[in-house]
Design goal:
single chain; 188 residues; mainly alpha; two-stranded antiparallel ribbon; 3 helices; rod-shaped
Length: 188
């Protein structure tokens, strides 16, 4: 898989493309999938279920994923801001139409049809603005739900991989067999 050409902190150099290759944007899911694959494919230590991992590469992948998440959250927030700007514009347009209608009424009381048309148009604009705002809100909620669901799936896979590794480790090595040096928490 070839990723974005701009080097970002937290993304290992091995994921950088060679000159002339097609470029693909890196997503949070891609980085987490790479981290899961790294753990799943890691070589085990002789006569043990302990795996040997390149700590820096794994940390780079996880930090890269953490750095990408705020971008996706910012995109969702931008959608919300766009919706608010649209609503503000619709409200402003509504107020302008209402004001124009009132000015016509004061100058042309005998022409009730103009006032009714302006009020009808104002209601139509308000209805359209509400409909559009609701549609945009549903889109934003769907987008956020999809991203959270994807992240939940990746986290669930990671938790299952870790749980399986721990169960394997617990099943093959008895606590009495471990020397105090075996409790080193440094992951390599």
């Amino acid at each position: 898989m070839i990723h974005d050409t701009t080097h970002r902190p937290g993304v290992p150099d091995e994921f950088e493309p060679d000159a002339g290759e097609a470029v693909e944007q890196v997503s949070v899911e891609d980085l987490l999938d790479d981290a899961i694959a790294m753990v799943a494919e890691a070589r085990t230590m002789p006569m043990s279920t302990t795996v040997k991992l390149n700590r820096d590469d794994l940390l780079d992948l996880l930090e890269g994923a953490r750095e990408l998440l705020p971008g996706e959250v910012r995109a969702a927030r931008q959608l919300l801001r766009d919706r608010e700007e649209f609503l503000a514009s619709a409200r402003s347009e509504r107020e302008q139409i209402i004001e124009q209608g009132r000015a016509h009424v004061s100058h042309m009381v005998e022409r009730q049809e103009i006032v009714k048309a302006a009020e009808l148009r104002a209601r139509q604009i308000i209805d359209e603005a509400r409909t559009e705002a609701k549609r945009m809100q549903l889109q934003v909620e769907d987008y956020c739900d999809q991203k959270l669901a994807s992240f939940e799936i990746v986290l669930d896979k990671t938790a299952r991989t870790i749980r399986t590794g721990r169960e394997r480790l617990a099943g093959r090595i008895e606590p009495s067999d471990l020397a105090p040096a075996d409790f080193d928490t440094d992951v390599r």
